[in-house]
Amino acid sequence: MSEKPTNFIRTKIADQIKQGQISEIVTRFPPEPNGYLHVGHAKSICLNFGLAEEFGGRCNLRFDDTNPEKESQEYIDAIGNDVRWLGFEWSNLCHTADYFEQLFDWALHLIRNGDAYVDEQSAEAMRLNRGTLTEPGIDSPYRDRSPAENEALFCKMRDGELPEGAAVLRAKISMSAPNVNLRDPALYRIRHIAHPRAGDQWCIYPTYDYAHGQSDAIEGITHSLCTLEFEDHRPLYEWLLKKLPVPSRPKQTEFSRLELEGTVTSKRKLNALVQAGHVSGWDDPRMPTIAGMRRRGYSPEGIRLFCERIGVTRKPNTIELQILEGSVRDDLEGRAHKAMAVAQDDPHCRHKAPVLQKLQYDLVVCLQAHHHIDRSLNNGFARVLRLRGVIKLFASEQHAGKAQRIRRHMKLQKLHGMSLLAHREQHFERLDENVFFNCVVL
Questions:
Q1: Domain 100-206: what homologous superfamily?
Q2: Which of 328, 346, 367, 420 could cross-link with 384 by S-S, CB 3.0 to 4.6 Å?
Q3: Is 257 one of the catalytic residues?
Q4: Domains of the chain: which residue ranges?
């Protein structure tokens, strides 16, 4: 194993393997396909895929597609592209929708054992009867129905005989539990809407809390890694696993989510920016999405370095933006192609640089310059070309004339009828995203 900064999850897994408690680690990255992935997801991706890779295990990419109203194929494709761009490959591509039949059968198991019931209260009544953090809730008037009655009503829900909001399936735990997540939480709700993957086969859909743990069990997940906001949901996660005949018993472990200084990572708010036209899309370079950072010029290695540097803890904190920028800069520093040219001899220039003088107007002169000031990096040369009185930089034959960054304070000069400013503006479209170099013209 390579030497990496340790964290409490990594240490825990290493101890479990050493003591023979597990033979193989299986993790999963389970995004909901209702938007593009953002910088916060990068931490979870690197953690789940990184641990599986480090300990010779497996990591699944699972789409928790239980809310068809907000999901689309565009988001599914974008998520897969982002995971691969970051340098990871999943062991299995999974969808919670593929488990709908099994989840339905397990719901029937709960009903028949008296652990779930169909509640026909209105949403407002259920909210009022739930209680508060200091006061217990009130039992539903439908809580003591017989299993046979509940099963018949649940089948009517599935067959589309009840309208939306008419009923929900609830777990039968305790309305006086100190943890409000255990106060008979909803397991299924009615939605007369087609699913992007399952089509119009279903008109009831499981809640995230119900589907999450059982999907982990179906896939044989050993370590279900979640952010801290799911800590209060863990008792329900474990209660369901105990009540159901699941094939495995995954364990949930929580860690602090990534909060980046001055950065909005709410999908709802990011979607509002897209829908209102304030940005060109989810991949706008100003967006904190992984696709946006890719268009901004960030490298996947730099983002992974950032996630490694901030570590994994249980303590909520806000990471300074300069740590992200510094990580990307440090990654590019050793391999980004750099070159410099001076258009004329400037007496105010503090640095000594070779100056091309007394060249004929039509003369072409090719020189070589190291890509980086640190020649020990041995990352090749740039060709410096003077053509018709204009300095051009070539990073390679393939990218001749393409500059990733050109100083804005320079005087605009015509280059085959195109201004250097226009050249700079077009580099996002013309530059191969897998090649990172920095050409500066002074």
A1: Glutamyl-tRNA Synthetase; Domain 3 (3.90.800.10)
A2: 367
A3: yes
A4: 8-91+209-328, 100-206, 337-441
